[in-house]
């Protein structure tokens, strides 16, 4: 398998949703990862942020199925997801809009509790600790992503980071451990 930064990053992203770590994701994995993440972020059962996050995971699952398809058991393999996410013919804009952004946007809404439209280091670390990303790696990522050096991430910086995570040709950007290391 291709060990390019793009493939490694796609694998890391896949791994965040493979709840039972069997090398496949299915609808139940996506439901469970949404619930688990909402719990770890401390989103209360009746909160709009929790509902938004769970809806985003359901929406992304439907979009992944439409784009990639499933095997006879309703699953997508890690290898198939990586092949899809790294395909030279991939419509990158559609991929980001349909698969990456719904969850990213829901997470942003859940984390920006003060409504200031930016994430500080503490908010950012809270997010990645919910994904079990090491604090040192998350701090490193925050510093690299804070492109204007103001000590906060704007939504545009966060969106650019997610795009770069999957598609940048700059090794400094694809090496940012935004979802940990695969």
From TrEMBL:
One of its GO terms (molecular function) is calcium ion binding. InterPro entries: EF-hand-dom_pair, EF_Hand_1_Ca_BS, EF_hand_dom. Signal peptide: none annotated. Residues 5-40, 133-168 form the EF-hand domain. It comes from the Bacteria. Transmembrane segments: none annotated. This is Calcium-binding protein. It comes from Sphaerisporangium melleum. The lineage of its organism: Bacteria, Bacillati, Actinomycetota, Actinomycetes, Streptosporangiales.
């Amino acid at each position: 398998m291709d060990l390019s930064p793009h493939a490694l990053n796609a694998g890391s992203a896949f791994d965040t949703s493979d709840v039972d770590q069997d090398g496949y994701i299915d609808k139940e994995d996506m439901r469970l990862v949404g619930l688990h993440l909402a719990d770890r972020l401390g989103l209360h059962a009746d909160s709009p942020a929790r509902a938004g996050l769970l809806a985003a995971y359901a929406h992304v699952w439907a979009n992944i199925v439409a784009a990639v398809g499933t095997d006879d058991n309703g699953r997508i393999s890690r290898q198939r997801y990586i092949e899809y996410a790294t395909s030279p013919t991939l419509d990158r804009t559609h991929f980001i809009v349909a698969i990456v952004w719904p969850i990213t946007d829901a997470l942003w809404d859940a984390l920006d509790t003060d409504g200031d439209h930016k994430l500080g280091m503490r908010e950012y670390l809270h997010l990645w600790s919910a994904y079990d990303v090491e604090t040192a790696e998350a701090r490193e990522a925050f510093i690299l992503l804070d492109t204007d050096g103001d000590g906060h991430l704007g939504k545009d910086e966060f969106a650019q980071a997610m795009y770069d995570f999957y598609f940048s040709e700059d090794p400094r950007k694809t090496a940012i451990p935004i979802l940990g290391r695969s």
